[in-house]
Batch of 3 targets.
Target 1
Amino acid sequence: METAPRPAQEGTLLSDRNTGVTLEVHDAPQCTAVNDILARVGDKWSVRVVMALTDDSRRFNQLRREIPGISQRMLTRTLRGLERDGLVSRAVTPSVPPRVDYALTALGKSLCDPVARLGNWAIANIGKVEAARAVYDGEQD
């Protein structure tokens, strides 16, 4: 991948200060793949499920109780998506009724630290974001 400066979008000012972030130019299929992954891991319910599974495996109803507001259907869809993406494993223990446990895979565990750091950033900056929104909304009236 080649590193190159990106042109400013309309209304965006480029800063010459070093932010420590390297922008990389990617081809379109790679960007689409990254967008798909970010959509999965950035989804509100996916983040909550991943964080609920951080310490140990959970059964479906345990997850449902630990994640307020999630419906059975949404939890099912979220778990299936996370399993499809290799972030969550599903283990069925034959019994009556069958026992199904969900746990993070190694890939899923590697996501916990970045998600927690982003959550901590949000908590630390919520006041600034709310203030900026109030200023913006006031200018729009």
Target 2
Amino acid sequence: MNTASTWLTQESFDRLSAELVDRSGPMRSEITKKIELAREEGDLKENGGYHAAREEQGKNEARVRQLKQMLENAQIGTPPSDTGTIAIGHVVTVEFADGDSERFWLVSREEAVHSTMDVYSPDSPLGNAVIGKKQGDNSSFALPNGKEITIAIKKVETYQA
């Protein structure tokens, strides 16, 4: 996983911290109890409850690792001010060659949970195409099918909650 910092609002940092506490404590204990109860039923080869609990345990532990890394590398605060150059935390409006436009918040996908607008990660093709650019610039990026898309950056704003 990428060790680059992740920009988070204080609200998201607090929410993810609470999730980590829950997954590391009560949820982990609950899963362990499920595994123990299923083990007591015997024959683990054909014990669906045991295998389901083990799978749940693996997913939980993966999420715990992900949360720990994200929170350790988090940059917490308010979005950057309008410096003219697009950075993580800005709201960007782009126009595609066909005339369609899209307004989105350039932040980690963890912020998307509480956002009412579209969110793109800076690591996404579109996010990567706009980061460091300025209003009035053009940029392009490749779609998964290899097709090249050109965009015009129409507006750069500070995010307002």
Target 3
Amino acid sequence: MKMISAVIKPFKLDDVKKALTEAGIHGMTITEVKGFGRQKGHVELYRGTTYEVNFLPKIKIEVAVPDERAEEIVRILSDTARTGEIGDGKIFIYSLDSVLRIRTGEGGDEAL
């Protein structure tokens, strides 16, 4: 099993959620996060004063999938979240040792 974690631009969330749902993903975790990479933030003007915003708002999506679906889901995330502009985000893939559904006690792929 794999845990796929994607950090994307907030306005792409609805498109990504729709694409994952259409691909048969039944559950995901969404977190509002802040961060920066090569984008390095930006300068804003507020009430006549400029200030630097170092951490930009992003969305983190986490999805657990069977090994055989990981490549497909990464492709869907990448294609759907891409704008072609700096700051599109990153996708991280982790090996997932085990999963347990609390309600039923099911484990492994059945718990996904």
